[in-house]
Amino acid sequence: MRDGTEGAARWTSLPGMLLQLAAERGDRPMLTAWRDGGWQRMSWGQFAAAVAAVAAGLRARGVGFGDRVLLVSESRPEFPIADTALMAIGAVTVPTYTTNTVADHVHILRDSGARAAVVSTTRLAAKVREAAAELGGLDLLVTMDATEGAVPWAELLATPADLPMLMAEVAQIPAGRLACLIYTSGTGGAPRGVMLPHRAMLANQRGLAVVTKPLKLDGERYLSFLPLSHAYEHTVGNFLLPSLGMEVVYSRGAEKLAAELPEVEPALVTAVPRLFEVLRARILAGLEKEKPWKRRLFDRAVALGLRRLDGPRLLPWEWVEDAVLERLVRRKVQARFGTRLVALVSGGARLDPDLSGFFLALGVPVLQGYGQTEAGPVVSVNMPWDNDRRTVGQPLPGVEARVAEDGELVIRGELVMDGYWNAPEATAAAIVEDWLHTGDVGRLDGANHLAILDRKKDFIKTLGGDMVSPARIEGLLMAEPEIAQAVVAGEGRPGIVALLVPAEGADAGKAVERVNGRLSGIERIRRWRAVEPFTVENGLLTHTMKARRKLVLQHHAETVAAMY
């Protein structure tokens, strides 16, 4: 059975890869989604037939080589079908978040020059139409649900198509052709379109195929939780994991995830650190309802688990105690994640080692990786047999990484973007002599494990001249169950203060006291204030659940000033 590793060298494009694998895999399940009250599967053969029909339908309606096409959809099989079909005919996909505002769509439509859009629902189509109206309208609007005045998705699927001819065509796509524009959410400023050619994402495929081969993922399930417009999910969940033989199951959302894990039995799940914070908070909240002796057993299981991770070595009788706690405590926690789980992978932001340590101590395999939209996007990842939770793992095969004299991590390889769309100056600043300057301060240890310390531009310089990492302090704060969100300030000030969003009904003050006990004098939080949650809707949170620090501090400037 092929697992997507043997043919990697001959593939030059993403549609070429998927259609070739579809010809080999036929009736094997590829995509699964919740429809009409149950899980419905799509085979590889059905996927390929749909891609050919949609490609023919789009061509018949004037979409061609080089056209940028907005793709706005929740995670559902139609997304990868449209994505693959667009790339197959030489168009450039512009995946866009369903949570985008009209203003967001206006910016992306204007910047990309997109004149066509494929949208999932009538509600989302209305926002895209409103944005497009400011720019002269669209030449083509396709909706997956029936929408008045739009081309129905079903009409594209009904288009007569020649799959063998399309396969012959995509086999000729050069690896350097632009595949998609991914607009970075960023923590400040207008999003920029990252130009990713096929070679960048195929470089990720080759690297991941090598490092994951011992995991034997062929035939296993991947629970897709992040939005498909997210750079990681677009590359890894949309193309790479299916190429390795995994069946992709689309989650119904955060509120259903806890029930889906034991039901779907995934081998892999990917999420942002915020999800791990929520999961830990739920576990601890449930524990509060248990009897004191059960809480003591749980705490002891975590303590001994951390000892096994970090030392000192367990004493002989503690090994016996640990084995008992494995059956009484850890297996019950592990059962919540299904019996086939190989890894919960965290990316998108720094995962606090204490947070990952909590799950690892309970036997839940949490791995941290690192990437950037500008790099395919996967740069490095820990593996179960070499999992250093204080790092983001070793760079993938084919990725060169080094730390510049000023501490900035720079990378080189086929995974690096072509540049930023319509932004030559920004491109020249980001890519210097083939090295991508990530903007992250990093460290490589003797075993080539990469640690990300902070954003290069995000260090706080206090009035006393001390340099403080806000990411470190914010990570420690949000690792406390009483704190949902945190942003710290102190640039040019005599000390550090914090804006906190407390967890519902929680006393954030106690959490601040605990965190201060682990911070140095210059890092300690002098004062804090509770503020309203940072959300995508109020513009203070990115679509990848990262606080927009600059905007948060601007929005709460008076509150910050009042704390000094």
UniProtKB/TrEMBL annotation:
Tell me the keywords, alphabetical order. Answer: ATP-binding, Nucleotide-binding
Catalysed reactions listed for this entry? a long-chain fatty acid + ATP + CoA = a long-chain fatty acyl-CoA + AMP + diphosphate
Residue span(s) of domain AMP-dependent synthetase/ligase = 22-421
Superkingdom of source? Bacteria
One matching Pfam family is: AMP-binding
Q: What is this protein called?
A: AMP-dependent synthetase/ligase
Which species expresses this protein natively?
A: Roseomonas elaeocarpi
